[in-house]
Design brief:
By secondary structure, the protein is of the alpha+beta class. The protein has one domain: Nuclear Transport Factor 2, Chain: A (Roll), CATH 3.10.450. Helices cover 34% and strands 44% of the residues. The chain is built from four helices and six strands; from the N terminus they run H-H-E-H-E-H-E-E-E-E. Strands 2-1-6-5-4-3 form a six-stranded mixed beta sheet. Strand 3 and strand 4 form a beta hairpin. The longest helix is centred in the first third of the chain and has 34 residues. The radius of gyration is 19 Å and the shape is globular. The termini are far apart.
Length: 173
């Protein structure tokens, strides 16, 4: 009896670790696709990272006005498609995530939080640095974790000179 109880506890822990890994992989894929958002981005895959009734919203004073609140995959598809232009909206776009915390509330729901730093250069040559707090709810259906409520709140934002210059990297002799 004790062995079967121990086995069930280990199976529960393993399922939690596997869920956390799948949630992390979902968020990673989202950021990878957003880093290379252009006319060739697989839009179906990007939108498929969200549940059918997902909410994507900017919260806080700056992002509420900039991004608003979108509900459903159709609205998300329209938003992401707006970035999929020629030339690409971003000539350089890199997201860095840190301060991760993923908490499962049940076998099929979880929430995650991250601090994000985004370095961007736009098609017109301007560059920008943004930091945001991400709070994301996830839901699992048919064995797959997807984002169900994505919230981004600006921490700071500022223009910068440039991210990528042709100057050689300084290395020791």
């Amino acid at each position: 009896m004790a062995d079967s109880k121990k086995l069930r506890r280990l199976e529960t822990r393993l399922a939690r670790f596997e869920s956390e890994h799948a949630i992390r992989a979902c968020m990673n894929r989202y950021m990878v696709l957003c880093d290379a958002l252009d006319a060739a981005t697989p839009l179906d895959e990007l939108v498929g990272l969200f549940t059918r009734d997902a909410i994507w919203e900017g919260i806080g004073e700056k992002y509420r006005g900039t991004f608003g609140r979108l509900v459903g995959r159709g609205a998300l598809r329209k938003m992401f498609a707006g970035y999929m232009t020629e030339p690409a909206h971003f000539s350089v776009n890199v997201h860095f995530l840190t301060s991760e915390l993923i908490e499962l509330s049940s076998a099929n729901s979880a929430c995650g939080s991250w601090v994000m730093l985004q370095t961007s250069t736009f098609a017109d040559g301007r560059s920008h640095l943004n930091a945001a707090r991400l709070s994301v709810d996830f839901a699992r259906a048919k064995g797959r974790w997807r984002m169900s409520h994505f919230r981004t709140e600006n921490l700071f934002s500022r223009p910068v000179d440039a991210w990528n210059v042709s100057a050689p990297l300084p290395v020791p002799d």
